[in-house]
Specification:
Layout lengths: L1 H11 L10 H5 L2 H18 L3 E3 L10 E4 L8 E9 L2 E2 L2 E5 L1 E4 L2 E4 L7 E6 L4 E6 H4 L4 E4 L62
Parallel strand pairs: 3-8
Antiparallel strand pairs: 1-2, 2-3, 4-5, 5-10, 6-7, 8-9
């Protein structure tokens, strides 16, 4: 009888449920975060009146092509968007690398023109020429600190690198001369000069 009771108790046991996945781990999806940063980059670029193109498929090393169409000389820039949202050793960190097989390779001028790094929690962008990233692909940002001397801080919000100023901007020259026959203390028609009251002597 004791053996039958043991068998029945084993049959009645229900399998344990797996613990539910925490909410923060569902939201912290690196792919989803990257997609949000790409949308943010599109918005910022559109505000600056760039013509924006996106390559077909995922075979290219860049995410967007920006065309500075308001300028007299057309210039196209290939942009790779990177994002970071976590502090590591006091800095926001990402890498200017991409996957090749089972390893990683560093972006070069042959692949892209600029790395646009997005610090997600602060919504701050770093527009970095790729030739700056190639020798040191580990990118560390300190926007939360007054660290202007850091290597990459000069590229914070450096959108002007994608949209350079107009070459030889037009200048306005004003030329004036004095008419020797114009009478002294003469005023244009309809002009009434203000007459200051004479100061009174103290009594």
């Amino acid at each position: 009888m004791s053996g039958r009771r043991k068998d029945r108790s084993k049959k009645r046991r229900k399998p344990r449920r797996k613990p539910s996945q925490p909410l923060h781990s569902v939201l912290n999806n690196p792919k989803r975060t990257g997609e949000h940063s790409e949308i943010a980059f599109l918005y910022r670029s559109d505000q600056r009146r760039f013509a924006i193109s996106k390559p077909f498929g995922d075979s290219e090393r860049y995410d967007f092509i920006l065309d500075n169409r308001p300028r007299p000389k057309v210039k196209l820039n290939r942009i790779q968007v990177k994002c970071t949202e976590c502090l590591r050793a006091g800095a926001y960190e990402t890498r200017a690398t991409y996957t090749v097989g089972k390893g990683r390779a560093v972006y070069t001028k042959r692949d892209v023109d600029f790395i646009a790094a997005h610090v997600v929690p602060l919504d701050i962008w770093y527009i970095i020429p790729v030739e700056v990233c190639t020798p040191q692909p580990m990118l560390r940002f300190y926007p939360h600190r007054q660290a202007r001397k850091m290597r990459l801080e000069k590229y914070r919000e450096a959108w002007y690198l994608l949209d350079p100023p107009l070459p030889n901007p037009p200048t306005i020259t004003i030329q004036a001369c004095i008419d020797p026959d114009y009478p002294e203390n003469a005023y244009p028609e309809g002009y009434e000069p203000e007459i200051e009251p004479e100061p009174r002597e103290p009594e």
